[in-house]
Amino acid sequence: MKLIGLTGGIGSGKSTVSRIIAEQNVPIIDADLIARQVVEPGRRAYKLIRKHFGDEVLNADGTIDRPKLGAIIFGDSDKRKVLNSCVHPYVRLEMFKQVFWHWMTGKKLVFLDVPLLFESKLDKFVNTTVVVFCSELLQLQRIVKRDNMTEEAATQRIRSQMPLSEKVKLANIVLDNSSDVDQLKIQVKNLVRRLTPPVSSWLLGWIVPPVALAISGFFIKDYATRGARLLIAHYSRP
Ligand SMILES: Nc1ncnc2c1ncn2[C@@H]1O[C@H](COP(=O)(O)OP(=O)(O)OP(=O)(O)O)[C@@H](O)[C@H]1O
Questions:
Q1: Mean pLDDT lowest among 53-57, 189-193, 229-233
Q2: For 2-201, CATH number?
Q3: pLDDT for 220
Q4: What is the 3-state secondary structure (H, E, C) of 19-80?
Q5: Is the ipTM of this complex over 0.95?
Q6: Which of 24, 52, 196, 217 is the most exposed place for a label (fewest CB within 10 A)?
Q7: What are phi and psi of 161, to 5 degrees?
Q8: Residues 6 or more apart from 200 whose CB is under 8 A from it?
Q9: CA of 227 to the centre of ligand 1 (A)
Q10: How far is 168 from 156, CA to CA, in rounded Å?
């Protein structure tokens, strides 16, 4: 199975690319969605956030007030670290479970949609990294339109992130989202075709690890049994 890390800058078009990929019946693991699910009431991350930030970050219905929590950690790196330590381990665990499930069910290609792929060093765990790129001006225009935000606020959000030009330098593949959505669709379809492994290498990658594990397990067990027998023989000598 090939694991592809998909990332970009705010408003550069990651979600749009994800939707197009999903239309091709290729599985997408959405880190943002998982991050929202792991902080639902009753979950471990939710309890940790409550413990560290108190009930003032809760809505009346007990859910986390995300904008309020966002405002608390914005510009306070210590509090941001605390929040990350509450949430990230559970996000990673859930992502790992989903990756494992896709591998078990014989998927050839799986995308991980992670906005902070490079910042969180998750790029080390994927086969290929893809960055969705557009100019800062287009990012700005698209965010202002989508989120009904002022240009100043949008600029501030863009500047608070790792520059998109830096991500482009780190990427294996860059999708240029400067044109319309139809052009983007063509690029994504070509990308999926290019990245899908041929059946032979997919079969090898799927079958070899469990067979290797089973064989090594057999030998380890065999040696352990022989070792135990020798020990028993040694200590039971008169
Ligand atoms: N090629 C395009 N042409 C016109 N509009 C686009 C194009 N690509 C994306 N958009 C629009 O731009 C906005 C931002 O795109 P999208 O939500 O996919 O970005 P994103 O990278 O996921 O952003 P965020 O990081 O904020 O979640 C959306 O409203 C989307 O419909």
A1: 229-233
A2: 3.40.50.300
A3: 79
A4: HHHHHCCCCEEEHHHHHHHCCCCCCHHHHHHHHHHCHHHECCCCCECHHHHHHHHCCCHHHH
A5: yes
A6: 217
A7: -105, 165
A8: none
A9: 62
A10: 20
Residues in the chain: 238
109 near 192, Cβ under 8 Å? yes
Reported confidence tier of residue 238, pLDDT bands at 50, 70, 90: low
Q: What are the structural domain ranges in the chain?
A: 2-201, 202-238
Q: What would the two tokens of residue 114 be? A: 């992670």
How many angstroms is it from 181 CA to the middle of ligand 1?
A: 9
Locus of tokens 């550069």: 12
Q: Minimal CA–CA distance to 4: which of 185, 125, 129?
A: 129
Query: What is the mean predicted confidence (pLDDT) over 6-18?
Result: 97
And the tokens for 232?
Answer: 């028993």
Q: Which atom of ligand 1 is nearest to the CA of 10?
A: 25
Q: Is it the case that residue 219 has pLDDT exceeding 80?
A: no
DSSP single-letter state for residue 198: P
Residue nearest to atom 9 of ligand 1 (CA): 13
CB atoms within 10 A of CB 212: 10
The pTM for the full model equals: 0.86
